[in-house]
Hints:
Elements: E1 5-10, E2 17-18, E3 24-26, E4 48-49, E5 52-53, H1 54-62, E6 67-70, E7 94-95, E8 103-104, H2 110-120, E9 123-127, H3 135-146, H4 151-158, E10 169-172, H5 185-197, E11 208-215, H6 219-229, E12 235-242, H7 259-286, E13 293-301, H8 320-335, E14 340-346, E15 356-359, E16 362-365, H9 367-374, E17 381-384, E18 386-389, E19 392-395, E20 398-401, E21 403-409, E22 415-421, E23 428-435, E24 442-447, E25 467-469, E26 472-475, E27 478-483, E28 487-493
Helix pairs in contact: 3-4, 5-6, 6-7, 7-8, 8-9
The chain binds alpha-L-arabinofuranose.
Amino acid sequence: xxxxxxxxxxxxxPGPVYDRRIFTQFAExxxxxxxxxxxxxxxxxxxxxxxxxxxxxxxxxxxxxxxIRWPGGCFADEYHWREGVGPKGKxxxxxxxxxxxxxxxxxxxxxxxxxxxxxxxxxxxISGNVGNGTPQEMAEWVEYITAPAGSLADERAKNGHKEPxxxxxxxxxxxxxxxxxxxxxxxxxxxxxxxxxxxxxPAGKTLVRIASGANGGDYNWTxxxxxxxxxxxxxxSLHYYTLPQGGWPPKADPVxxxxxxxxxxxxATWKMDELITxxxxxxxxxxxxxxxxxxxxxxxxxxxxxxxxNPGFLRQQNTLRDALVASVNLDIFAKHADRVxxxxxxxxxxxxxAMILTEGRKMVLTPTYHVFEMYKPWQDATxxxxxxxxxxxxxxxxxxxxxxxxxxxxxxxxxxxxxxxxDPNQTNMVTVKLxxxxxxxxxxxxxxxxxxNSHNSFDAPEVxxxxxxxxxxxxxxxxxxxxxxxxVVVLDLQ
Length: 494
Ligand code: AHR
């Protein structure tokens, strides 16, 4: 065995709330992210409720998905909401210019999105079109959704929904530095202020306005947005994908990879910590009270597409490696929970680092799904600061901490500890001092698998799934864990 890990959990000085919106999911009109994966419309061969597949909705309900971001992504930058309301037969058929050039039937629009939210039990986060839409179009969309009366409310009622919907969050464009208009930060800040000015909700309602934030390490973008547009904002986004093998364009194989690629991927994931630290520092300068939060509303792995799939559909298999990417990110968000109050993994179904993969009638849960399920107690829990002194794991030129972790006190009073061992070869002995916590019992679950690239397929859907974990003991304010290689462990202390 290698060098052990020592850690301290400071239950005696609780930190901020781990906002449940950190578990937001992202569903874009991209490949089979919506059509086929969620929406099957009138296809009776796949059991559905009002067009949405029952199997996928049930799996999402089991995750307690708090929020679904929709309709994009780059798709949002060209989306005209009026084309997605009214009788289905009359909705225009468009070309999805960003994703594969396929036809977009507009069968899923605003009403269907809110029906999906109802079925899943999630809240809305809509990204508006700054790219090629007008401030008037955006303002009218918000009014159509939220107004109790007026001609847009009448139109909504005529289209089947009399009551206004609840719209807690709205994105003022997406990636204004790229597919949202290729803007300079200064121009984007001005445009954001202009669009934001006209987003109005009825008296007594609130709307969290999320501006299009930086691409990875573009700190200047954050600086300019905060300097010029902070008053019109409640949150700023950050997009950072884990892109092994030299970055853009994505070229890493999702399944056939060796330990070097494993280490490369996880090292790239650790960069999230550095990025949030950097952007938070800039935000602190303009907003020391932390009124404006950072919404990491696109993150996850981005590999080369699965062989034989449309490259514009961003379909990729998901392995144990992705599970570790998820747990490391969720731990990093705990460390920064004072500033990060929302994140959205990309994407929910069939796209990039998905929770769920489907093919026709078939559905499979990915290793990433299981991490999200295991971390459910983190939703709206109180972060308990954790200091970790862990050895380095390295392979070739990729070096990173071997053990990642976070701890929370959930709303039911129980303490939960997440620990991930990134070293695929060695068990790590972890000793955790529990300051201010007298726990007598520990139980837990583990997610691991025989190989670093183990994954679930339609034929073998349970290769990677959580199992009971018995490698932890607690006594006298000390928790000891024999943390198996390449594993994610979640412990419950009482
Ligand atoms: O998630 C896929 C794409 O990545 C999104 O549409 C875009 O916002 C980002 O570049």
